[in-house]
Amino acid sequence: DAKTTQPPSMDCAEGRAANLPCNHSTISGNEYVYWYRQIHSQGPQYIIHGLKNNETNEMASLIITEDRKSSTLILPHATLRDTAVYYCIVRSLTNNNDMRFGAGTRLTVKP
Amino acid sequence: DSGVTQTPKHLITATGQRVTLRCSPRSGDLSVYWYQQSLDQGLQFLIQYYNGEERAKGNILERFSAQQFPDLHSELNLSSLELGDSALYFCASSVDWGQVGELFFGEGSRLTVL
Asked: Which residue has the higher pLDDT, A101 or B73?
């Protein structure tokens, strides 16, 4: 039962911003939005998470719409090393707070 | 380096056999999660433990079992192996349960069943 919908693939030019969308229209009030990425077959890497406010860290920015039904991960200056599968995950901190991954978006950064 | 250690990194075995995958979480982390990633299934959540107790169960087959020991390391046991069990198995850990914190993933154990 996927809680998120992401485009299967996207391309981005090196040096440009990569904007990765995610729909989570059934998100509940106590559920957070997390983003992870997986480079080739390495272990997934945490990027950022948020509840309702926009968040920024050294890797990326997370923009969550006011109704919380969608979000966008922004990599401000994509590099070739950002080529990866990006996963948007909705996670509850009550009951089961496991982290369930969907199919993700395969981002390809091109020179 | 996430601080999560998984062994072995690679394992080749035959159908019908049994294997054990081991995970040492980051120092201080009490929660351990197991995931399976095969080519046609993506990253599937299997099971979660917190301080030795099972807390959540995902798409884990009855042939698979796991446990978390008092020293907090965890083992995933896979028995009566089938060709379709060939996959990358990831372990992740987090500090607590029911908290906001991130999961830290190991580099995985690649299982090949011939």
From this structure: B73
